[in-house]
Amino acid sequence: MPDTVQKYKDFVITSFLKSVQPIVFEKASGAVVTDVNGREYLDCFAGISVVNAGHNHPQVIAAAKAQMDKVVHCASYIYHCQPTGDLAEKMAQLAPRGLTKTFFGNGGAEAIEGALKLARLYTGKQEFIALQTSFHGRSWGALSVTGNAGRKKRGGPYAPGVAFVPAPYVYRSAWPKDPDECVRQCVRTLEDVIRFSTSGDIAAFIAEPVLGEGGIIVPPKNYFREIKKVLDQHKILFIADEVQSGFARTGKMFAIEHYGVEPDILVTAKGIADGFPLSAFTTRPEIAAAFKPGDHLSTFGGNPVSCAAALANIEVLEKEKLSERSREHGAYVVERLREIQKHTPLIGEVRGLGLMIGIELVKDAALTPAVAEAEAVRDACLRNGLLVGVGGAYGNVVRVQPPLVISRQQLDQALKILENAFRELAGAQVKAAS
Ligand code: PLP
C-alpha cells in the first residue's frame, strides 16, 4: 500500500490541521467514509459541509459520467455547453426573486472575488462592510473582507476600504439573553460604522446568513431585515455568502430564505454539486450588466461535468426533500445535544439551523474558550469512528454538518460517540485534577 500520509508530508503543502491524525479515504457512500485499511467512519462533516446529497450519490455520479463521455472541458465563457446553460437557468429558478443571472467559478473564494468586483463595477463605489468573525475564503480579496482574525493572522496588510461591524453573535454579546437588543445594537453600530469608519463610498455589505467558520452563528430572526433597512437607505448592496449555508444545508434551499430578505448578489459553492468543484454568484440582470466584455472570465468556471453533477445534485435535493430532512434531523440533533449539555458543563451553547450545528465549548462562566477540549472531542470522535469538525472564531466550536441523507439511526450513533467523547474528556479532567 502506498504510504499516502508520508507522501503528503514530503510533497503536499499541508497548511491547515495541527492535531488531527489524518485518515486516508479510499471510498465513500452516503454518510459513510471508508479508509484505506477498510475502517468505516460515520461522516458528520461532509467534507466541510459539501456533500449535502451524500458521498457519491449514484444519480450525481451517473450524470457526471454521462457528461464525461461527451465533453469534459469547453472553456464555458468562450464556447457554450448545455449543462452550463441549464444550470444557470436552474439557479434563476432557485435563487431569491429577481436573481436570474449567474457566473460560475470553481471554488468559494473565487466566487466571492467575482461578487466583490461586480459590486464595485455596478455601484462605482469602492468600500465594503463585513462582519467580525466572518469567513469568506483564502484569496487576498476574500481575506480582506474576512473578519475572523484567526484566519488572517499572517499575510497582511489586506485591502484598504473594508470596515467591520460586530456579528450578531448573541451568546458572546453583552445581551446573551436578549437577541432583540443584540440586533438593535448591531444596527446602531452599522450606522455608526458607515458614518465614522468609511468615506461613505460603500459598494456592498457582505455577510453569511449563518456564519460557518465563525462557529455556526445563527443571527436572530429579524437581524437581516433590520440591517437591510439601513443598507437600502444608503444604497449599499447586500452580498449573501451562502458558500457554506446553501443548498438545503439549513433546512431551506438558501439560508437567507429564513430571514425574509432578498440579497442583491448570492454567492454559492460547496453544496452546489455534491463534491464536484463548482461555485457561483447570481444576481439581477442590471447588476450583471456591469460586467462588460473582457471584464471577467474563469478558464474552468462552469465546467460541463461539474454543471451536469450540479443539476443532478439539485434534482436529488428536491426529489429526496433534503431541506425538510435537514430541518427535522437538525431539530432532533439540537434537542439531543441540549440534553447532553445538561450534564456536560463544558458545553456553553448548542445552536444551529437545520443540519448546520455548532457546540460551543467553554471553560467557565466567563466563556473562556475551551480550545484544546474541542480538539480533544474531535480526536476522540475520530478514534471512535466519527468525523466532526472544529472551528469558530476562538477555535472552540465542535461542528456537526453531516450529509443531509444521513439516517436517524446514523445520527443516534453519532450522538452516542459524541456523548462518550464528552464523558471521556470529563473523566480525564477529573483524573488530572486529583
Ligand atoms: N465563504 C464561506 C462562507 C465559506 O465557509 C468558505 C469556505 O469554508 C468560503 C467562502 C471559501 O470557499 P473555498 O474554500 O471553496 O474557497
Protein model, in words:
There is one protein chain. α7 (179-196) runs parallel beside α8. The protein has 2 domains: 2-53 and 321-433, Aspartate Aminotransferase, domain 1 (Alpha-Beta Complex); 60-319, Type I PLP-dependent aspartate aminotransferase-like (Major domain) (Aspartate Aminotransferase, domain 2). Helices cover 38% and strands 16% of the residues. It has a 7-stranded mixed β-sheet with strand order 4-10-9-8-7-5-6, with helices on both faces. Strands 1-2-3-13 form a 4-stranded mixed β-sheet. It contains 13 helices and 15 strands. With 434 residues, the protein is α/β, with parallel strands linked by helices. Pyridoxal-5'-phosphate is lined by residues 48, 107-109, 112, 135-137, 208, 212-213, 241, 243-244, 269.
